[in-house]
Specification:
The protein is an alpha/beta fold. The chain has 20 helices and 22 strands. The strands form five sheets. A six-stranded mixed sheet has the order 6-7-8-3-9-10, with helices on both faces. A six-stranded mixed sheet has the order 16-19-20-13-21-22, with helices on both faces. The protein is globular.
């Protein structure tokens, strides 16, 4: 059976709403897409999967009119369309919501929704009343009752700002909606609400192309899934006829035995002990400990205080009360430099702005946290620096053309490996990981998880913060749950399940009783 035949074997629709045919695209030295084809039907949620570098971003930019294809064609309702500019895509009924929302925070919801196509009076002026009325009609059509047309967008939550983006696409009569990693910064509650909106759009006949690294979302919302690898179409399958293991194998070209390769490690004495730690408003009388060889998972909803706790332990926001002990010794951590000297390493949530200097090279980034090891009399020994970076590249299997490659040009997974390797060059005792696999593909996730297990087996104490419950459950020896700045529950690996941890995160009566 040919790939094209497999792709269409279950498709009885005569004319898909969107068809992409034999798309090819190359950039200097790189072939990004090699004859990619797929189609999306009216009222279908079609997931697009692939590792970083598989060609997803290039493909959606072609469909969005950002890049022209070298070869191939895009068809809407069976008719070829020339998408030379984003305006061409908009006129064809195609809209894209990117991970970085393109809104004007100083303007109102209505002004953002109708930016560039505001209704006009017969005298050519903006018809503010009609604009507000049409915005309220759009809100009502999606049953969104906690947003008003006159609210300032900058005051809204991330979830509500995303809804404004969706309203803007509907105000332009979009029939094909591309969503690029739409849940990356959302709370679980906002994810649920987003899925409700997607289902309403589907019922109205809108075709949704859904891009995500989170496989559980694909099975929750998508009808079919297309997998890309190395710029080529690998397979298109009904979601009901596949599973996570099969999709992972299609994406990476090999079996990954486990996304969470937990390595049994001997657990030793406490490395970190925190007692009644205070840093208002989001760190309130927190007590916990992490032992050598142990991975402690810290779960909680966004805003529960997890990242703030990590920053207090690391000295970014010094504690206002309580006690911290490192290897049994009481310490008063007032700065990250002091934390580093005590053997603490911190990989922050936002690697792009806090963990990595993207314009700098791989070599320079690897040495940033360990300059004392490669600098003498105020000057950097380039030979020592290159040796340090080369060791890190080899140890963490960083895929880079050379040590002089700009770090920001690497994939998200390789950037994360550099951030991790940078801190481990100091041979810390405690490693704090905040969202260690956010925004990276499944192959890179498995590698990061393997590295975490190996580091714990070598005696490192690991405190891992994650919004992904499967990651917390799969990698942790113990699970702590934070809510409203406090630790409200603790579970052993055997006790920790989706239900018990999720219940504690949401704050039901059951979780309160467990915490007591």
């Amino acid at each position: 059976m040919t790939m094209t035949t497999e792709m269409h074997r279950d498709d009885t629709r005569a004319t898909p709403l969107l068809s992409v045919r034999a798309i090819e695209k190359s950039f200097p030295g790189v072939r990004a897409l090699s004859g990619v084809s797929f189609d999306v039907a009216s009222g279908e949620v079609h997931a697009l999967l692939g590792e970083n570098g598989a060609g997803k971003s290039t493909l959606i930019k072609i469909v969005s009119g950002v890049f022209p294809p070298d070869r191939g064609e895009v068809m809407v309702d069976g008719n070829p369309v020339n998408l030379a500019r984003p305006d061409d895509a908009r006129r064809a009924g195609i809209a894209t919501i990117y991970q970085e929302l393109l809104l004007f925070p100083e303007l109102t919801v209505a002004e953002n929704v109708f930016m560039g196509h505001a209704p006009r009076t017969r005298f050519g002026r903006v018809d503010w009343r009609t604009m507000r009325e049409k915005t309220n009609e759009l809100l009502a059509s999606l049953e969104i009752y906690d947003l008003q047309a006159d609210q300032i967008v900058g005051s809204l939550s991330v979830g509500n700002r995303q809804r404004v983006e969706i309203l803007r696409t509907l105000s332009q009569d979009a029939r094909i909606l591309i969503m690029d990693e739409p849940t990356a910064a959302l709370t679980e509650y906002d994810v649920t609400r987003l899925f409700e909106i997607v289902r309403k759009l589907k019922a109205r006949g809108v075709a949704v192309i859904y891009i995500s690294h989170k496989l559980d979302e694909i099975f929750a919302i998508a009808d079919r899934v297309t997998v890309l690898r190395d710029g080529a179409h690998v397979a298109t399958k009904p979601v009901a006829e596949t599973d996570s293991a099969a999709l992972v194998q299609l994406m990476v070209g090999r079996r990954i035995e486990s996304l969470f390769p937990k390595i049994a490690a001997p657990i030793g004495e406490p490395v970190l002990e925190v007692t009644d730690l205070e840093r208002r408003p989001l760190t309130r009388t927190v007590s916990l400990n992490v032992r050598s060889g142990e991975i402690v998972g810290l779960a909680g909803l966004v805003g529960s205080g997890r990242s703030e706790l990590a920053q207090t332990i690391f000295g970014v926001t010094p504690a206002e009360g309580g006690e911290i002990r490192i290897a049994g010794r009481k310490v008063d951590i007032r700065s990250p430099a002091q934390a580093r000297s005590l053997g603490i390493a911190y990989v922050p949530e936002d690697r792009g702005t806090q963990g990595l200097v993207r314009p700098m090279t791989v070599r320079e980034n690897f040495s940033l946290a360990a300059l004392a090891k490669v600098a003498f009399a105020g000057f950097i020994d380039r030979t020592s620096e290159r040796r340090l970076a080369a060791d890190g590249v080899a140890r963490f299997a960083v895929k880079t053309h050379s040590l002089e490659q700009v770090a920001g040009k690497l994939s998200g997974g390789n950037q994360q490996k550099i951030v991790l390797g940078k801190w481990l060059a100091n041979q810390p005792k405690l490693l704090i990981l905040d969202e260690p696999t956010r925004g990276i593909d499944v192959g890179a996730k498995a590698e990061i998880h393997r590295l975490m297990g190996e580091l714990a087996a070598q005696g490192l104490a690991v405190l891992m913060i994650s919004s992904e419950l499967p990651e917390v459950l799969g990698m942790s020896d113990r699970v702590l749950v934070m809510r409203e700045g406090r630790i409200v529950a603790e579970f052993s690996r055997a006790e920790a399940t989706q239900e018990t941890v999720g219940t504690a995160m949401m704050g039901s009566r059951k979780s309160v009783e467990q915490a007591a």
